[in-house]
Every structure is written in structure tokens, then in C-alpha cells.
Design goal:
two-stranded antiparallel sheet; 7-stranded parallel β-sheet; globular; alpha/beta; 10 helices; 289 residues; 11 strands; TIM Barrel
Length: 289
């Protein structure tokens, strides 16, 4: 696989996202515990050295599976987590943006994963806030992340779900190493952030790389042009959508997740999918808004 820097580390451009390992709604135990363990181990065997996770996946479930499957970790494995949110008993996503909450979340990740330092931690920005709470300034959140880095608890600071202005502030204040925002063949609204990251040598890790079932976010795999190119290449539509991202910018890192071993193999095989000029032209014509 090709590699790209993630802060001080060089990682393969196809990693693994742990969000799909817990149960439905990213809550509770996995559909199949043994298969979840096998997926993590097989991913590392096949060259994955960048795993994206979060304490609030489960909660606790994803991190506990990673530790069970892979600890003691390979020397080159980079574990990346995110903080800034937590879950309620019904699975709702609540903001946890105060500096003391960010610190507590980082320390929870360290304990559950069984490490002394994380490769990077993304500050996931959250528009909402708890009733009666004042908004937390981004400056204060970034300052806490920098303090955690200075203490050696995280190697790099990242930011997620951020506007261009927020990314610029994070670069200036925290020297971020990665950005996680929504981006795909069909949704390029974050192109300005991607271009800035490419210019600065910052890894860009798209979530929803194949779209989503959420409203106003069409699925890449349903697009006729994507399906036509996939049929011509003998690939799956998902592979075409992910391969387009790999070819679009060198600083894009993929973290496709799955709870099925067969899908893991398909995701990692994206490295062998090559889109030629005819393919790219058809995709551009078929996805233009």
C-alpha cells in the first residue's frame, strides 16, 4: 500500500475504522464477537497500521475489542481516537467539549486500549450543548489538547467536523496532524479544507466516504456512473468510490469499517483498483451536480 504521514508516523493509506464493530446504532456488544476479533487481527495481518476508534463507540466496546484482539500491539500500529462527545443510555450523542471532559475522555481511551500514548486524537466538534451550559470556546478546547500532547498522552492533535475557519485556527494554535470531515465522490463541499490540508501536509481522513443513509447524503454505491465503472473493471461500486478518493489527493487516508470479514477483504483490495482516464471522465460526468 501507499503511505502518507500521520504526524510523526507513516501509515498505509488504507486503515480500519472501528465504528461498525459494536452493535446496531454503535451501541452494545458486536453482532458476532469472534468475527469482530478476527476482523481486527486479519486487518493487521494484511498491512493495516492505522486504526480509528473512540471510547464512545459502544460505549467502550470498540476499544475493548481492539485491546482483546491486538494487545500487545505491533510496533508500527497507530491508534487514533476522538473525543468531544459521549452517549446517553438511549444511544444519543451528547457534547462533551469542556476541557476537563476532553482530558477525561483521553485518559479513558488510554486505559481501555492499554497504552500510555495515542498516535493522534481528534477533537470532534459538536454544535449542541447540554442544557444550561455555556458554549466552550474552540481556543480553550485546543489548548487542552495541546496540553495533553505536551504531557505525552497523545502524539498528535486532530480535528473533526470542522469548518475551514476552525481548521485554520487549529493549524495555527495546535499544529494539527489530521482532519476528519465528510467527503466523497458525491459530496465535495469540503474541498477547500481538503486542499488546505494537502498544501500543509496534513492527513485528511474522510468520514462518510461512500455517502450515508442520512437525508441529503446520497450513497455513492447507488450512482449509475459508479456502478457502470465498477462493472467494467470487475470491481464493486464501493471499491470504485474508495479508489476515487485515493486517487483524488495523496493526503487522503481511508478508514473503511465493517463487521464482516468478507467486506474487510474487499475494502483492502481497493489498493489494487486502478481508475483510468476513461473511468475518471465517466465518474466526473455522472456525478456532476
Amino acid at each position: 500500500m501507499d503511505t502518507y504521514p500521520l504526524g510523526q508516523f507513516s501509515v498505509n493509506r488504507i486503515g480500519f475504522g472501528a465504528m461498525q464493530l459494536p452493535g446496531p446504532g454503535v451501541m452494545g456488544p458486536p453482532r458476532d464477537h469472534d468475527e469482530a476479533i478476527a476482523i481486527l487481527r486479519r486487518a493487521v495481518e494484511w498491512g493495516v497500521n492505522h486504526i480509528d476508534t473512540a471510547q464512545f463507540y459502544g460505549p467502550d466496546v470498540a476499544n475493548e475489542l481492539i485491546r482483546e484482539a491486538l494487545h500487545p500491539y505491533p510496533d508500527d500500529l497507530v491508534l487514533v481516537s476522538k473525543v468531544g462527545a459521549f452517549r446517553d443510555e438511549r444511544g444519543g450523542w451528547l457534547p462533551g467539549q469542556r476541557p476537563e471532559q476532553l482530558r477525561s475522555a483521553v485518559e479513558d481511551n488510554l486505559r481501555s486500549l492499554g497504552v500510555e500514548r495515542l498516535g493522534a486524537v481528534n477533537l470532534r466538534l459538536h454544535e449542541g450543548r447540554a442544557p444550561g451550559e455555556e458554549p466552550v470556546r474552540l481556543e480553550d478546547q485546543l489548548a487542552e489538547m495541546v496540553a495533553l500532547r505536551d504531557e505525552g498522552k497523545i502524539a498528535g492533535v486532530g480535528i473533526s467536523t470542522a469548518t475551514l475557519a476552525q481548521v485554520q485556527q487549529a493549524i495555527a494554535q495546535a499544529g494539527i496532524v489530521c482532519v476528519q470531515n465528510a467527503f466523497s465522490l458525491l459530496d465535495r463541499s469540503d474541498a477547500a479544507v481538503l486542499d488546505l490540508c494537502a498544501e500543509k501536509g496534513i492527513a485528511y481522513v474522510p468520514y462518510f466516504p461512500l455517502g450515508s443513509a442520512f437525508p441529503n447524503m446520497p450513497k455513492v454505491t447507488d450512482n449509475p456512473a459508479v456502478r457502470a465503472v465498477a462493472a467494467r473493471l470487475g470491481a464493486t461500486p464501493a471499491q470504485v468510490g474508495l479508489a476515487w478518493l485515493l486517487g483524488h489527493r495523496d493526503n487522503i487516508l481511508l478508514i473503511p469499517g465493517t463487521s464482516r470479514l468478507a467486506h474487510l477483504e474487499q475494502n483492502l483490495a481497493v489498493a489494487d483498483v486502478r481508475l483510468g482516464g476513461e473511468d475518471l471522465a465517466e465518474l466526473e460526468a455522472g456525478t456532476a451536480s
